[in-house]
Structures
1.
Amino acid sequence: PSAPLYSPARVRQLLTQHGLRPTKSLGQNFLIDGNILRAIAEAGLSGGPAQGTPVLEIGPGLGVLTREIATRGAQVTALEKDEKLRPVLAETLAGLDVQVVWGDALDFDYASLPPGTRVVANLPYYITGVLLSRFMHAPAIVSATVLVQKEVGQRLASKPGDDNYGFLSALAALYGSVRHVRDVPKGAFFPAPDVTSSVIRLDFDRSAPLPPRELLKFIESALGHRRKTLRNNLRMIGHQGAAIDAALEALGLRPDVRAEDVPLDTLRDLAGRLGVLG
Ligand code: SAM
């Protein structure tokens, strides 16, 4: 056939032919822009040989991004929840070395992935945050190149003191580094989503030990209630006022400092002083 698979005409035709409509509750916004597809695949596979690299894709949908990755030689596992897409993927991925796993990405065992796995995906936006934290906690995953809402991309890349700095930003910094690859306009999708998107690449530092669970919980609670003081948030999780005051003072922090203005290393020191790290 003449037009590429991702062209708006082919995408509509594929859906009609299989009697399907994009399901909003599953975050189905399909990519229809070849330049964006190539940019995601390239950013996801750069920095190593594509040939044989294990890639995990969440939500292959109609298979357009999957094809883009698989034709570059990567070993793709594609995890899709919507079983109605079975006949579509059988058609669009025919002849390619792709393993489609039917199931929910929230139930997937990320520990079963081969070491060195890269995630490349146009994520279902309703579960972006949970999925990103699953990727971070899975030592086999070395990077995640994902399409997310622009606002989530900004949060991921924020530093302490920035407007939208929060737990997700802290997590990203704890596990590695974040790069903004490019913005993606609404028109690159069918149907068009409500907001602009961004391609983000997260690289995880797997030589460092995973942060202890206690530290993650501490940081999450500290950053939990924005606009409240750090002192107040720590009181809420049971720390004594006097102990907090002493620790803040020892670290040169004002008693009314807010957690989102405190550097991560200082929060870690604070956790240590409050006996959180055992
Ligand atoms: N990769 C395709 C593309 O770029 O055109 C589709 C991306 S679409 C934004 C998100 C995909 O994730 C859909 O195919 C949807 O069915 C799938 N999905 C939604 N929730 C899921 C879940 N919990 N587990 C696995 N896949 C899911």
2.
Amino acid sequence: EHMQSAMPARMAPNAPDAKHPMLHVLELPPFVDPLPVPSVPMGTPSPRKLRITMREIQSKIHRDVPPTRMWSYGPTPLGPVIEARSDHPVEITWVNHLPSKHFLPVDFSLHGSGRDLPEVRTVAHVHGAKVPTQYDGYPTDWFPSGQSKTCRYPLQQESATLWYHDHAMGLNRLNTYAGLTGLFLIRDQVEDALNLPSGPFEIPLILCDRNFTTDGQLFYATSGDPDHPWIPEFTADGILINSKLRPFFNVEPRLYRFRVLNTSNSRFFGLALDNHQPMIQIGSDQGLLATPVEQKFFALAPAERADLLIDFSHLAGQTIHLRTGAFDILQFRVANQTSSAPLHSIPKTLRTLHRTPESSATLTRTITLNEHQDRLQNPMVMLINNKHWHEPTTEFPKLNTTEIWEFINQTEDTHPMHIHLVRFQILDRRTFDQFELMTNKKLRFRGPVEAPAPNEMGWKDTIQCPAGQVTRVIIRFEGYPGKYLYHCHILEHEANDMMRPFEVIA
Ligand code: C2O
Ligand code: CU
Ligand code: CU
């Protein structure tokens, strides 16, 4: 339904037409392609140096679909998985070897970016990494095709499922959609001691949605207005797992670990197994939970991660599916027997996790999430504190202090809010009186305080802020002073203009 309304009224340059209509992904035979498992680059030993080159490649999304032009951080559709250790710095040279023209409809009306900028610009951001500001991938730190940038990641942080993606001003939703994403795992001794499934039994699952034309090319919808092609959200029918449409994966009847990441522009996944067996979540965005959480269903917003264990040991010879909603997206074919590799078990506890006491916060910031009809400039804008990205910085947290941020969602969508540099904990959610807030500018709470779900009790860097609620998080600003940003991770919202700077003051 939403797709229909998002379709352009006028033909955009890449719009499906009579010669290249939309591919009906649901009509393709499911589970014909094996799940690809991304490679791990070695680099040089400590300090590890890696060179990651962005390039245009061809990708087979399905046996029966012609190759798709896309962009990647490597020679294959999945960017290399970077594996690192806590406190062992990694140096990455990001090389922009992309063509100089974008193949998706570029929107020059966003962020006041103007028409004078070169068409392809890029800057890599490691989402969830604690890094000095000059290496964080600030949106204006982009560089054009033919150039590169070397960044040093100190990684003074605990084991976690991080990822990297493009963050170039006004373009990152298209660069990410074109394929510029990858997984970045940090490991530490706490994780080692748990003896979790590893090697062939630890598998990344990178999920995203894409639309294609019948000739297999990526399609990104625009509004149909050539001056303001921006659309408020983009969701598509084609769900890719590790770059394939509805792949299958051969597993042994044993315990597996899956590192699940949602790289979609706007889509939330509601994940479950079709045999209703619980999945055991052991970690979230910023690493391990305190104890494993069993759940039959969970929602994963754009940019959120889940570290999952799935036990296939009682399913020898059977076939089960991972699904989102009622749609099966991945088929597990369980073998009759296990290989001789040692078996793993589910740990009882994972790590000590101290809840940050509310009393340690020295400041509370009120952050409103707003939606505006702005007829002079754009048909619609999504804002934070009613401010645009380019307006002067208003938030200046002090280094080594703790703050509470209250995200007051006055819109009708759930926004996955992400804060760079830091990890945080969610305190609670409450419903507020919208009318009271608009008329008296006072926050009146209605109804009971909602405690975070058990799988939200660990460290987070992206938090779902539901409509009509105040979502409170507690943050210690540690690491480095300097300019960072926070934004909604629905990339269409972020682009217009749900993104704001903040500056950590030494
Ligand atoms: Cu996933 Cu500003 O980042
Ligand atoms: Cu980030
Ligand atoms: Cu949003």
3.
Amino acid sequence: MSKLHILIFPAPSQGHITSMLNLAELLCATTSFRVTFLVPAYIHRRLSQHSNATSRLNHLPLRLHPIPHGPHEDIRPGSFDVKDWLDSLSSTAQPSLRELLADDEDPIDCVISDGILSFVLETAEEAGVPVFYMRTLSACAFWVYFCLPHLIQSQELPFDCDDLDLTMVNLRGMEGVLRRRDLPRCCRHGLDSRTMQTIMHQTLQTPRPRGLILNTFDHLEAPTLDLIRTRIPNLYAVGPLHAHLKTRLTGNSSSTSLWEEDKTCLKWLDDQPENSVFYVSFGSIVRVTAEAQTELWHGLVNSGKRFLWVVRTDSGGMEIADGGRGRVVGWAPQEAVLAHPAVGGFVTHCGWNSTLESVVAGVPMVCWPHFGDQQVNSRFVDGVWGIGRDMKDHCDRVVVEKMVRDVMEDRSCEFQRRARDLAKAARESVVEGGTSYYDLDRLIQDIRDVCS
Ligand code: UDX
């Protein structure tokens, strides 16, 4: 039987590519599918240069397909406008997409589109090809975005930023949990915010495709997943995808990095005592000001803890030198770092991949969120899951020192215990009998059914 041909289109950014490439590999590991994975040419080049994706994919029926890109598509931290980014991507990628969808020699049976690329949905619908959506964020952050129109209708948005500690009352399922300051940062900028309008427009399209795939697991987000199902009944919670990949595919550990990984930091970690190092990283987009970086540095040094800090060359801030207790790298092999026994805490921006990677490794977090879903994730890490502390808008040296000590010093501390319990639940969800294992099988069967 010939394999069904799936086209996967992620938004061209590290966080989106990582999780959608993991899904692509999982689908290719079955005998049913082969995948064409669309990325702009500059991402294709960086994946070939820095990740082991191309060699790893050689043994799978998975092809990275480069498409042209426009001037606004490479994310430059600090000057990033989500609307320009998506508009530019849509105008340059659509012709290639149409061509691929019209190719009778090598027809596409099904599309899995990033759920913030509604032009992919429209183009595939025009071509009569079934579409599934995948969102690369948490269920809780997705639900907040989904509820924004309701918050506007009930006049809880826009709000006065003088009192950001007021709790939300019209956010179903999260009443009393989220404060104004825990909403995506764009909510602080009034209803005309381009980011808010764009994200709201994209999110409102989510009920249109055949189903929604989320990189999360039932044990972590069951109440929110149930709420989403009331509006989008066909939901697949298949995460954590990187853990899922490890259980279903054996072989070399994967890297999907767009930057060169500095693996020497693993050797440095080997020389540090168990649970003694804080890993510090803010993902691929966040820009850190010199002032904030100084506060973080003082907070870490004053805590007396060792640290391994990722400072991307494009992340702003200042140069930080390696020292006795600290090591600085440009880009780390993050999954391996978090799994290292020397690492006992993670100062993170709470991007969803980083959060999930920390959950799977059982490492408690100190959260310093910047924008978007990170604001919501960090509130859940602290106030709901109890596996870390949320700095939110207060990054100063005293707060950093206190939170780092809170998370790492008290060995009997609940953070460690809950982090270990959640890590166990995450691992159980992706093995046979687990909820994510079941949902992935259901997704595979449903894709087969819509294609037949
Ligand atoms: C963005 C958003 O910020 C995030 O909230 C959204 O859910 C997806 O898109 P990003 O900011 O890059 O992503 O954060 P994150 O989702 O955490 O993804 C970063 C990825 O880069 C992680 O998989 C992490 O392991 C990897 N990484 C980061 C490295 O491999 N090495 C590093 O040094 C830093």
4.
Amino acid sequence: PFRGAVTLDGPSGTGKSSVGRGVAARLGASYLDTGAMYRAATVAVLDAGIDPGDAEAVARTVAAARIEVGTEAGTERVEVDGADVAVRIRSAEVTRAVSAVSAVPAVRRQLVAQQRDLVGAADAVVVEGRDIGTVVLPDATLKVYLTAAPEVRAQRRAGQLGLTEAAQIDDLAADLRRRDQYDSSRADSPLRPAADAVVVDSSELSQQAVVDRIVALAQAAL
Ligand code: C5P
């Protein structure tokens, strides 16, 4: 059986979550979606009526919030102060505000510490995010950086949401570009591949093919 950590980083809309869950299931590993933690922190900020651009107030609010995520590969449990927010974290309101919240260094320090604790408690784990290979788990067994062409990412996201009009797909592409730009240019833990990451471009691969590829890499890395 696989023992260790697989990190899965990359921009939005590359299929990281589906691929990550698929890899975790195949390896018999736990699964940690760190984006869900930043999204849950954003719910806490919005519920407190705080401006996501006010870094000090954001840091204070998130420090006082109890953010819990499950690591069972088959389910998604996300709670803020005991309230189930698994559906709300996917709302457009949260998606708009999450990059600003996750750029606050104190928020990152708090959630990274929590992520390391969760990973430390697991024998085998797949961890998905933006800075997992570079910052959170620099000694991971296998680091994967998943990319895809921007048009492909917008098309896939549109498919998931059931959107078909060109204008709607353009909006999605613009939102993906905005978040990538924000995540890649922030000072603290910007999105970039770790020096020792394997870059996998999923533009022309099926989800199953990407999962197969990463499972093979993980087994070879043992
Ligand atoms: O992966 P997901 O799209 O759910 O992540 C939402 C946002 O959370 C990202 O756009 C990014 O701003 C932030 N994030 C981060 N570091 C991580 C995971 C997510 O900054 N490790």
